[in-house]
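How a chain folds remains the central question behind the approach discussed here. In the encoding step, the backbone of a single protein was reduced to a row of integers, each denoting a local shape. We regard such an encoding as a compact summary of how the chain folds. The sequence in question and its structure tokens are set out directly beneath this paragraph:

___
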Amino acid sequence: MSTKKQLLAQYDLHDVLFTNVIKDISDAESNQVIADPLNCVKWIAGHLLWANSNLANISGVQVEVKWRGHFHTKQGGSAEDFNAPPSPLPTLDEIRDKWNHDTVITRKGLENLPEEALNKVIDRKHPIQPFDNTLAGLWAFINDHQAYHIGQIGIIRRALGKEAMSYFRS
């Protein structure tokens, strides 16, 4: 299986897991911080949506996240993130709906990337080694990032008294 097919398989898995991990969590529950200094489900879900927009960018498609100012980090934020106009905080349902919309567009862009484009050295550094500074390395890092945060929501989900996340599409 090619590098791109492996990365796409991970992307598809994260799409299923994101949907499943936030399933049956109310907006009120998504705002709960179960222990300081943990983030709440809503922030983590929004952060995953923000990171997904970075995958859209590297795939050559554009998606707009109107709440980007809420969900970036100091390390990963861009000038666009830091200068985003103020916006109301979305509901968890709005984040989920935007995720469902954007993942279709993003996946198509990723699928259409030529295999040789994955070896292109990029200017943007990412924080984790041994991923190299190629487009494939950045994509692999973002996939790892998504898995990490989906796992965080999974732990919070259980702390909220919810059933464990399913690995299967509902």
